[in-house]
Specification:
Blueprint (H helix, E strand, L loop, with lengths): L1 H8 L6 H13 L4 E5 L5 H9 L5 E5 L4 H11 L5 E4 L3 H10 L4 E6 L6 H11 L2 E12 L4 H8 L1 H6 E8 L5 H4 L11 E8 L1
Parallel strand pairs: 1-2, 1-4, 2-3, 4-5
Antiparallel strand pairs: 5-7, 6-7
Helix pairs in contact: 1-4, 2-3, 5-6
């Protein structure tokens, strides 16, 4: 059943290559507390769970589809690590600050116009601290304001970043949806470490 749930989640999700990058980052950085903005049905959360060690907590932040995610997480055997926050990223960040929750990992795959605002809020509140990993899907032309901020003096003082060019991120064939990749089927993912 877990495999069926995992396959179902691919319909609206990170592409497989970006999912593999996510798993590599989580596994190699020994993440204990993570969060994702823009979880949709939860496929990337299942990728996170697959790469995590026991005792890891993952906050799934999305205002919609909570019941769908809950069912998928239960069927996949990942429910115990998931904390579903049915709301918006800025409110979640305020909650984390109020409860002294510090994230080791943050995946941003939500509204592209919120990338800079939410990253700045997470940094300013100390919700993501020194050494935390921030992964941003669909980086580049879809999020030009974030590209500009990362290149700015402020951005360079707060994060060390690398852009990972992901091949074969064209999911059009499997989903029937428009691709987020460029004409070569590639897309950019920002991987940053908080300084």
């Amino acid at each position: 059943m877990a495999r069926q749930v995992f396959e179902f989640g691919k319909v609206f999700s990170l592409d497989p290559a970006t999912g593999t990058l996510l798993e590599t980052l989580v596994n190699s950085n020994e993440v204990k507390i993570g969060a994702e903005f823009g979880a949709f049905y939860g496929y990337s959360a299942l990728r996170f769970a697959r790469a995590s060690k026991e005792g890891t907590v993952y906050h799934v932040v999305d205002p919609f589809f909570s019941k769908v995610r809950d069912g998928l997480f239960t069927q996949a055997g990942a429910k115990s690590m998931m904390r579903d926050y049915t709301g918006y990223s800025n409110d979640f960040l305020d909650m984390c600050a109020n409860q002294s929750i510090k994230l080791d990992f943050l995946l941003m795959d939500h509204s592209k116009d919120l990338y800079v605002k939410d990253l700045q809020q997470a940094l300013n509140l100390g919700v993501v601290g020194k050494g935390a990993i921030v992964m941003v899907d669909n980086y580049g032309s879809m999020a030009q304001d974030l590209v500009d901020w990362v290149a700015s003096e402020e951005g360079q003082a707060k994060i060390s970043s690398n852009v990972v060019r992901v091949a074969n991120c064209d999911t059009t064939a499997s989903t029937g949806l428009a691709s987020v990749g460029d004409e070569s089927g590639q897309c950019d993912v920002l991987v940053a470490t908080v300084l």
